[in-house]
Design a protein that fits this description.
Layout: H1 2-9, H2 14-52, H3 65-87, H4 94-104, H5 110-125, H6 133-150, H7 155-174, H8 177-189, H9 194-214, H10 233-261, H11 266-283, H12 292-299, H13 305-324, H14 332-336, H15 344-358, H16 361-365, H17 371-384, H18 390-400, H19 404-411
Helix pairs in contact: 1-2, 2-5, 2-6, 2-7, 2-9, 3-5, 3-11, 5-6, 6-7, 7-8, 7-9, 8-9, 8-18, 10-13, 10-17, 11-13, 12-15, 13-15, 15-17, 17-18, 18-19
Amino acid sequence: MDTVRQQLADVENTPGLGLLCLLGAATGGLCGLVILALHTAIHTLQEPLFEIFGVASGTFTDSSIAFRVAVPVLGALLLGLLVEWVIKSSEYGIVHIIERLVYYQGVLPMKAALAEFTMSALALATGQSVGREGVAAHTGATTGSWLGRQLGLPNNSVRTLVGCGAAAGIAASFNTPLAAVIFAMEVVMMEYTIAGFAPIILAAVTGSLVTFTFTDVHPRLMADYSGFSPVELPYLALVGALLGIAGASFTRLCGALVPLLGKVRISLRIALAGLVTGLLAVQFPQIMGLGFETVNASLAGEYAIAIALGVGLAKLLATSFATAAAIPGGSSDSVRKPCAMVPPKGDSRFARSTSTWIHWWSSVASAKPSTRCWSMVSQSLAPISRPTQPCSASMLSMTCTGDSCNRARGTHGGQGAQ
């Protein structure tokens, strides 16, 4: 074992890099199982709620008004009590991973990961305006850190396995291994090296393969890219500028809410965020939960302009309160630590809320039916308007559709799929 540790201490040599790649694949497999457990926990908590309120379709958009108000509020109350009286910690999110990499050589406490796993499952099950990207990255990174420490690996190898775990967690959640690899290198590791790139690729592919093999938990954005014209490129530039302003406004709104809500005990401010979500969901139930059904409806052009703008604004408000209130699974870390990067969970929620705004632009730009392409382009532009992760944001949108080649041609002014 000492020989193995010595080889891993010098991963620039072939034996050490090969061993690290094997460990990366093992980390990916473990992370895939963790994501399966998260998916199972969410649905296990959701099913009784839908049965109690008689929601036969099992979706938030078809639920009654009583469900839309009661479930987010009661869920937020329970979350607040858990955070204040049981967990008593807010160590979660992407910034927590980066902090542990910078100051603690990649040693992530298992208690914090288990706490975020539990609270995120509860938040998602009760329709809070959060997503599963942050919990996927955090639990994945903790899994990699745990494996490295159990094997007594040197610090440089533990750090790489943390990146492997973050990439595998995201890839396993969304079947986006390429975007997950770029995210891990661009945001978590903040460096591009062969010694880190190879094991992270294997981890991401393995994690995605595990969840795809046992059950399909991956979201799929259904889009048709036909009808895109280069004439629309100037309008895309304008959309990009508008989304940049919206992204900056979102960050500033969160920053303004944090000191206000910080004066209130954490259980009450989390309950307030749940109340805001519940009240907004009375009119716009699309804001509840992950929101991929809403995005697909937007891609299909099912929303009128007023509804699309209303859903987008409601989602931004609900997300801002959830973030500022530090609901587990949200992007509160980026607000509390503004010098750090913005976690992707806030980005994806921002993208989902703004994508419903953009589909009507195609009717202004061109008579061709490029509505769905515009909505998909907005999926890329919204996260890019937030700093530090332009590459991973673009690739996440491409790979979620399962047709990245056509997506790339459409984004770059080509004719798209014919």
